[in-house]
Amino acid sequence: MSKDVCVYILTHNRPNEVLRSLNSVRRQNFPNLKIVISDNSDNEDTLSLLKNIINNDARISYIRRGEECSSGLVAHFNYILATNTSEYFMLFHDDDEMLPNMVSALYEYLFTHDEISAVGCSGYLNINGKNTKKKMFVSKNIKKMENSGSVVRQYAIGNIAPFPSFMYRRSKIIGAKMDWLKGGKYCDCSFISAIANKGGVVYLPQCYMYYFISPSQDSQHHEFIQYLSLIKFFSTQVEDQSLLLDMRIFNIYNYLRDLQLKTGDVPYKRKALFLFYKYSLFNYFPKYILRLLKFYTK
Fold it and tell me: Is 76:9 a contact under the CB 8 Å cutoff?
């Protein structure tokens, strides 16, 4: 018989989104599922909308958070990490959706590989409310990363498993927490990197969820200084300067991209143009040229 898996759905003032997310978790084909709605909202709308579901599904617990999580999402994550008692658990977002076999697939891998700290997977992208077949990362093979450095290498080349896709083994990551100083809003990346040192992290190539993205999401807006703090942390984990250079170029490019999105214009800077030409001739350089010509807005 499989052991219990606890799925925490962290939510803040998004009752309609969390309803969709909750229903996708309720449809899981895993038999021993516990669901905790961890509500950090500043109103009663979420509880009002979900009350009947909570009362009629014995798997669901509702917890209204208070001062312990009042400083934001990182505090909310860290409080759950510190108080969770389930050996297998997930920290799921209130605006994403699970496919029906997500929990069972992640559990099967984690349970049968007892040295692993966490396992994540790829996900299909839902863009502006429309499901697509675009994937967070494309791979034919399982990727096993045995230390922080190997996670950084995957991250630097864009092979990123969405953070809500991960299932964790509590006994391996006791004491782990997110650190805002190691990446700001990107500190979920430094967190996954750090727990890789506690037994390894695995990416499964299959897509077991839909990861929702829209222009209004904070995650879709680049923060130059916060990303710089992530690079600073990663520089303590790897010696490969080419990877770190790629991340620095990525950081500069996305800073300029956001300027265009905000102002409708990209300021011509000779140093930036030279930088892209010298270090990223076949990647960011042509994109930057197209931006200057206002032919490229992605």
Answer: no
Residues 20 and 58 placed together within one structural domain of the fold: yes
Q: Do the domain assignments include residue 234? A: no
Q: Are 154 and 288 within one domain?
A: no
What pLDDT was estimated at residue 219? 61
Range of the domain at 273: 240-292
Same domain, 245 and 212: no
pLDDT in tens, 166-209: 999 999 999 999 999 999 999 999 999 999 999 999 999 999 99
Record the pTM: 0.89
93 and 172 inside one domain: yes
Residue 60's beta-bridge partner residues?
A: 35
Mean pLDDT, rounded, for 3-32: 94
What is the spatial distance between Cα 81 and Cα 169, in angstroms, rounded to a whole number? 11
Our count of domains for the chain comes to 2
Structure-block tokens of residue 9: 């759905």
Q: Residue 123 maps to which CATH number? A: 3.90.550.10
Q: Which residues pair with 36 in a beta bridge?
A: 8, 61
Read off the pLDDT band of 230 (50, 70, 90).
very high
Residue 228: what residue type? L
Q: Tell me if 54 is assigned to some domain.
A: yes
179 burial via Cβ count (<10 Å: 0-12, 13-18, 19+): middle
Position 242 pLDDT exceeds 90: no
Span 257-266, pLDDT tens digits: 887 777 777 7
Say if residue 182 is in the same domain as residue 261: no
Asked if residue 268 and residue 171 are part of one domain, the reply reads no
